[in-house]
């Protein structure tokens, strides 16, 4: 009986070196993303129409009463920056979860209708029911979950195929956009302005009553996604291969969908549908960190950086004040066109 095939020692050593090199790159890039996020957060607290010295910012954060700075930093900038971070983390993690599970960069919650479901419910609550605050957020969360369930149910035919789910989601998105347009046409001027501000995606007027539910949802649903990170990566090989490797495909898919939709719904209920953050975060993370290991945490960090930086640019660097969703939309639209062009050149395969 012949001896089993064994790789040469040099090949084994080369594979080991490659793993170490990729692991080092991943660790360094994640540390860099954390540093950029901290720097962007600190800049947002210090810089605005007036500059607050770092010492005064720290004193405010530690609870001291600093004349002028306590209101500017504690009441205005800190809640705004905090909502940007938790919403960006939520959008980034949820977006890459969908894209990884369905093996398609177009499988983003703001492409397949989930964000539009929350938006339609919020606009209806503001314009037709005359609601504001917490009731609007609750309706947005419930509607996002309902749309996700509808898209999943309509696309399920002995399993979920990514392309079918995306097409059904896009169709539902168009229906919801038409509904929103109709409701806005009937809106009084004062409700119309509030609905448009919400639809654009904005962190203006952020308060802790909005931030705390999103942070709790991020902790709960984020932990659920991270607990399935390894199985989610295996799903990229396809359902049959994943099942052969011991992954419970249906159970993993349900957990991922519920957790990702929960993140999107809670974040959208607080900040509105900040365009393309869920769509862009995963591809950016994959480009800078490589495809070695889960992208859930890197994409979440990229999402938080995107929202923080886009909001700062929209407020102070573009000549006029723009909601954060306008800035991220301007960034995301060219990338969507690039994907479509690449799909056409590749014969329709993204």
What would a concise description of this structure say?
By secondary structure, the chain is mostly helical. Helices cover 75% and strands 0% of the residues.
Question: In words, what does this structure look like?
Answer:
This protein is an all-alpha fold and 350 residues long. 75% of the residues lie in helices and 0% in strands. It is built from 14 helices and no strands. It has helices at residues 9-46, 54-61, 69-102, 114-127, 134-155, 162-185, 189-200, 208-227, 229-235, 239-244, 249-271, 277-289, 296-316, 324-345. It is globular and about 70 Å long. It starts with 8 loop residues before the first helix and ends in a 5-residue tail after the last helix.
Tell me, rounded to a whole number, the average pLDDT.
Answer: 85
Q: What is the helix tally?
A: 14
The backbone outline, from C-alpha atoms, is globular
Helix content bin: over 70%
Structural class: mainly alpha
Distance between the first and last residues' Cα: 47 Å
Taking Cα atoms only, what radius of gyration do you get, to the nearest Å?
A: 22 Å
Percentage of residues in DSSP E strands: under 5%
Helix-strand sequence:
HHHHHHHHHHHHHH
**Main β-sheet description:** none
State the assembly state of the protein chains.
Answer: single chain
Which residues sit in consecutive blocks of at least 5 with pLDDT less than 50? none
Strand tally is 0
């Amino acid at each position: 009986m012949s001896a089993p095939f064994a790789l040469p020692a040099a090949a084994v050593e080369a594979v080991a070196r490659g793993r170490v090199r990729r692991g080092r790159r991943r660790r360094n890039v994640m540390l860099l993303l954390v540093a950029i996020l901290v720097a962007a957060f600190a800049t947002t607290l210090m810089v605005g129409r007036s500059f607050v010295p770092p010492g005064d910012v720290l004193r405010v954060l530690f609870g001291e009463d600093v004349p002028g700075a306590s209101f500017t930093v504690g009441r205005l900038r800190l809640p705004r920056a905090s909502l940007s971070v938790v919403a960006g983390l939520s959008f980034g993690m949820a977006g890459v979860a969908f894209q990884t599970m369905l093996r398609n960069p177009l499988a983003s919650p703001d492409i397949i209708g989930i964000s539009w479901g929350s938006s339609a419910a919020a606009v209806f609550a503001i314009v037709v029911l005359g609601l504001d605050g917490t009731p609007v957020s609750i309706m947005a969360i419930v509607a996002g979950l309902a749309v996700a369930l509808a898209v999943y149910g309509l696309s399920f035919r002995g399993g979920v195929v990514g392309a079918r789910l995306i097409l059904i989601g896009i169709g539902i998105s168009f229906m919801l956009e038409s509904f929103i347009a109709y409701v806005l046409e009937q809106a009084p001027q004062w409700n119309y302005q509030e609905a448009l501000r919400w639809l654009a995606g904005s962190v203006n007027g952020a308060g802790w009553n909005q931030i705390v539910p999103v942070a709790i949802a991020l902790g709960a649903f984020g932990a659920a996604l991270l607990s399935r990170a390894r199985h989610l990566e295996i799903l990229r090989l396809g359902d049959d291969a994943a099942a052969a490797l011991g992954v419970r495909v249906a159970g993993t898919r349900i957990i991922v969908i519920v957790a990702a939709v929960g993140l999107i719904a809670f974040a959208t209920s607080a900040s509105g549908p900040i365009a393309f953050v869920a769509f862009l975060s995963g591809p950016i993370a994959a480009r800078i960190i490589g495809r070695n290991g889960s992208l859930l945490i890197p994409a979440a960090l990229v999402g938080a950086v995107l929202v923080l930086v886009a909001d700062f640019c929209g407020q102070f660097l573009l000549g006029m004040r723009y909601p954060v969703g306008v800035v991220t939309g301007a960034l995301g639209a060219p990338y969507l066109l690039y994907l479509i062009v690449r799909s056409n050149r590749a014969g329709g395969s993204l």
